[in-house]
Amino acid sequence: MNSPISSALTKAPDDSFRSSMLGPAASKVYLGIRAQIISLELLPYATLVRSKIAEAYGVSQSPVREAIQQLEQEGLVLSYPQSRTIVAKIDVDHARETQFLRVAVEIEVGRTLVLTPGTDWEASARRILAMQKLVGDDMNIGEFIALDKHFHQSMYEAAGVSSLYHLISSRSGHVDRLRRLNLPDPGKIASVLQGHQEILAAISNRDMTGTEKAIRDHLTGTLAALPQIMEQYPKYF
User: What's the whole-model pTM score?
Assistant: First the structure.
């Protein structure tokens, strides 16, 4: 059962950009398996048995095949003809490329918000951060991540480019898995919250240079910790 916080914030899946390309049955399978991979419930090299997936979701194997093909395009699974499908390792190069794209876009989103005073975004962002601190104090990683995504998604929406958020999220599977590994580290949750607070403060103060720095510093934190993550979790790479 979803908590009141997660229920209130889950307006649309972050990966709706890709799921919208699929039929209803395939979309359900795609979103379900993708969520299991991103949350690390399905680990690298885990085998996906199509017949069992079809049975679990109450669908035929055709939508399962469509869903897996979409996951293959994202590099989250690997299929071997006439053999098996497995969950892929975290692709570090793909993660770096996605992060490069996101930093560039989000800096422009921040710039737009600096130049557009009087929106409701700042009040909404403060509420999100208050809730995020509560779940962070409880070490509720799942809800903390949901609120993290909602904070950034709300920026894109306020800037009038929400479709770009979904586009970037649809190719962020490898980065999201890195974040999931990194978040439990001591001080990481507090660092994420501080990053959000610095972004909000810079935008509220109409500080263009500060906004760019806050966004860049915040979004590059996980990849900066990549050597430690890889050393701590070698089986994911």
Answer: 0.87
